[in-house]
Specification:
binds fe (iii) ion, binds zinc ion
């Protein structure tokens, strides 16, 4: 029985932090560490104690809080094997196909290179939740900083194969600008048009548009819907120049 609780909170200018908690064991993980103070505040609000940090990739807006959180909580830090040389705070490294246990649940590691070469995502199959870092966003995908379009397409295709009901937590609130771009690509997509309206309403109230689901992204995310690496590359380039 999945019994993990998930708590998302905004931090920095447009990042999301997420805490994962098992009320029985008391274990609590932070997905990335964008801002140590924001993570500490969220922990206090929930009255949870940090035991783990699960790191998706080396970028500063996902790692800068690790050192401070480690010294405050002596927590165990798990992150990408292929970026171990860039993140000096890792206690344990993981790569594609690895599994580990957190809070009594098996966590699957999925490598999704493209945004960075060593990016890993964390799949909680029992809870039906995946943490996609800066690979898959609501209505978007990460910029290709270190890899190439073929690589990013393969990474997104792996995530697309997860069960449709899988809940997707991603690293940033970029959804509204992604929606605007997406509507220019697929103006006749009714699901996308409806979703764009919902997103505008949520953002007008200052509410998050994340998490999303794999099923919703398959219906509305123009990057996932590209169909092949060549079409994907065209759309990614258009977005970079938008
Ligand atoms: Zn990043
Ligand atoms: Fe980021």
């Amino acid at each position: 029985m999945a019994e993990l609780e998930f708590h998302q909170f905004p931090c920095l200018s447009d990042n999301y932090g997420v805490l994962i908690h098992n009320p029985k064991t008391g274990e609590t993980a932070s997905i990335d560490a964008p801002d140590a103070n924001a993570v500490k505040k969220a922990l206090k609000e929930k009255d949870w104690k940090l035991t783990h940090i699960l790191v998706t990739h080396h970028h500063w807006d996902h790692t800068q809080g690790i050192g401070e959180l480690k010294s405050s909580y002596n927590c165990h830090v798990i992150g990408p094997k292929d970026e171990a040389s860039k993140i000096d705070t890792l206690d344990e490294t993981k790569t594609d196909g690895d599994y580990f246990t957190f809070g009594g649940e098996t966590v699957g590691v999925i490598s999704t290179p493209g945004h960075t070469l060593g990016m890993i995502n964390f799949y909680f199959a029992e809870s039906g939740v995946v943490f996609t870092g800066d690979t898959l966003f609501a209505l978007g995908c990460g910029r290709i900083f270190e890899g190439d379009a073929d690589m990013m397409w393969r990474s997104l295709s792996k995530l697309a194969k997860l069960p449709a009901e899988t809940i997707v937590y991603c690293g940033h609130e970029y959804t509204q600008s992604n929606a605007k771009f997406s509507l220019a690509i697929e103006p006749d997509n009714k699901a996308l048009t409806a979703r764009a309206k919902e997103i505008d309403a949520l953002r007008a109230q200052g509410k998050p548009t994340v998490p999303t689901t794999i099923g919703l992204e398959l219906e509305t995310n123009v990057f996932l819907r590209a169909g092949n690496a060549t079409e994907f590359a065209k759309i990614r380039t258009a977005k970079d120049n938008a």
